[in-house]
Amino acid sequence: MGYKNTKECLDALEARGELVRIDKTVDANIEVGAIQRRVFQAGGPALLFTSVKGCRFPMAANLYGTKQRMHFIFRDTIEMVQRLMKLKLSPMEAFKRPWKYLGAPKTAWHTMPKNVSWGPVLQNETTVSQLPQLVSWPMDGGGYVTLPQVYSESPDNPGYAGSNMGMYRVQLSGNDFIPDKEVGLHYQIHRGIGHHHAQAIKKNIPLRVNVFVGGAPAMTLAAVMPLPDGLAEIFFAGAMGGHRIPMVTREGGLPVPAEADFCISGTVVKGLEKPEGPFGDHLGYYSLAHDFPVLKVDKVFHRNDAVWPFTTVGRPPQEDTMFGEFIHELTAELVPSVFSGVHEVHAVDAAGVHPLLLAVGSERYVPYAEERQPQELLTNAMALLGNTQTSLSKYVLIAAREDMRQGASCHDIPGFFKHMLERVDLKRDLHFITRTTIDTLDYSGISLNQGSKLVWAAAGSQKRELSTEMPSNMNLPRGFRDPQVFAPGILVIKGPKHQKKRDQQDAAFDRLGAALEKAVGIEGFPMIVVADDAGFTAQNWDNFLWVTFTRSDPATDIYGVHGFTHAKHWGAKTSIVIDARLKTYHAPPLDPDPEVEKRVDALGASGGPLHGII
Question: Where do the DSSP E strands lie in 423-553?
Fold first, then answer.
């Protein structure tokens, strides 16, 4: 029932023809990351790099690179975990169909970790500098752990029940870190480890932290699982892994998974922060160097047959996209129980996940009204912005289920945007939240962790016909050109290079709005996006979503055609104009190294280990 360690999983994938060994010596600096991304984009197999330059440990990648492979790895437990989640939604389900839940007691038993006195992970000790130093992108600040399981326990409530295990990137080398003594620990806002850190600071004690790498695949999945507060990830790992997770208890230290490949043990002490980064991140840009807590390393353990699993992130889709889709499968039916009145949510991967959340909710507040308008939808949206990981969303677009055709879904992105644009009242239905917290990795705001959010709601009957014909009499101001119809009701325009400082609006957009007021047919385009490259942005939905929602802050970057402010409410009578240009203060987008890409090409040539794959 479930794989207990990395080797078991790799052996099974190889036997199934889902793993390719690469025996040619490769470099952990840029090269292996570039190979992994290329193979993922091709829908290729898992990879085992047996010869890593300057490192004695093999590296494994793309283990979770396809939906089919994810289902294979967790084939023994996925159905029961889904049933148990459905049981939370409808407790009577077990009485109605008891035969479906015969395995539930065993699954519940598996959630409890099993304390053991020893495990393979303790077979050897090494140093941080001996570990694989994965550098994924050319401007990264050093070597990183990219599939870590960062484990901590509540100083106020020690033990498994008060534990947290998250996937927070760990910088092994570079910057000002003392080699082999310190590593960087980057955790973003709204992460469980932050609560533990706050408790340790209040008690004036160090926070013990263990970083696990490898082991049971269920541990990796648990580390990225958005579980509700109070439910420890280590419990979920047992349920998903189909066995009790054996944990070695060490005197004076935190427990360690017996079957992990590696474990870095250390402490975070009060007042010690150092620059961490840059790092090529999942929004498709570098997150820059900022001060984050330092983990003072005490011990580094590894098993005899240790393999270093890794991934790389970048502009979606990447391997982490598969985690998101798998988690959606597990949790989709739970949405109404977590958010009353919300029926469906879609954190859009192509837009970087947190920048754009699409949702469908109920609108029942005034059922006798002649025309529905967003009321309950606003309550739903505020609930989404006040709980769990959806609280990090920047744009929330929410539609009334009562107005949607049967079978319609917010996962049909073109259809959902069409529905929203046909029904939104731009004078009434845009609600801004300013000077608030945003995702740490989003540089579109007014400072680190700070920016704005927009709730865009739509309910009621269709209010306009969306156009696909270019408006006439479009005399664009200087610097604006190349208008293109992207989709019904959506226009993309090339804008001049951004030259303003952070937290400043651009008067050029007032001139653009005034010019567009005179365009004939502009009322058929309620959404206008200004970008650095209109052709690229309008090429496909992935480009449009990535550019529009990762490069704009709602309060700073939304303007209007016939825009107005009344009693602190902003609206537009005709269209909204979103400034989605790269700003002077944005982090740079990720670009591959051309020379490294040539080396990757050679692996895919005739006779190469990846021939026929890339």
Answer: 430-437, 450-458, 481-487, 490-494, 527-531
Residue keyed to tokens 């959010």: 453
Q: How many CB atoms lie within 10 A of CB 228?
A: 9
Q: How far apart are CA 298 and CA 108, in angstroms?
A: 34
CA dist 313 and 37 (Å) reads 8
Residues 6 or more apart whose CB falls under 8 angstroms from that of 319 comprise 36, 40, 62, 64, 65, 311, 312, 313
Measuring CA to CA, which residue among 210, 186, 207, 357 is closest to residue 274?
Answer: 186
Alpha-carbon Rg of the chain, whole angstroms?
25
**pLDDT-above-90 percentage for the chain:** 85
Bridge-partner residues for 344, per DSSP? Answer: 360
Q: Is residue 352 classed exposed, middle or buried when 0-12, 13-18 and 19+ CB atoms within 10 A define those classes?
A: buried
* Nearest residue to 382 via CA among 371, 394, 391, 395: 391
Asked if 301 and 121 count as a contact pair (C-beta separation under 8 A), the reply is yes
Q: What does the DSSP assignment read for 43-77? A: T--EEEE--BTTBSS-EEE-TT-SHHHHHHHTTTT
Containing 298, the helix (H) or strand (E) segment is strand 290-302
pLDDT tens, position by position, 382-431: 999 998 789 999 999 999 999 999 889 999 999 999 999 999 999 999 99
DSSP 477: P
Residues 443-452: what's their mean pLDDT? 94
Assess whether pLDDT exceeds 50 at residue 599.
Answer: yes
Q: Distances from the Cα of 176 to the Cαs of 130, 180, 330, 415, in angstroms?
A: 18, 12, 41, 50
Contact indicator for 233, 222 with CB cutoff of 8 Å:
yes
Per-residue confidence band for 602, with pLDDT thresholds at 50, 70 and 90:
very high
Separation of alpha carbons 518 and 529, rounded Å: 18
**Strand pairing category for 558-566 and 569-579:** antiparallel
Neighbouring C-alpha atoms within 13 Å toward the C-beta of 235 = 15
Please compute the mean of the pLDDT values over residues 550-554 and round it to a whole number.
98
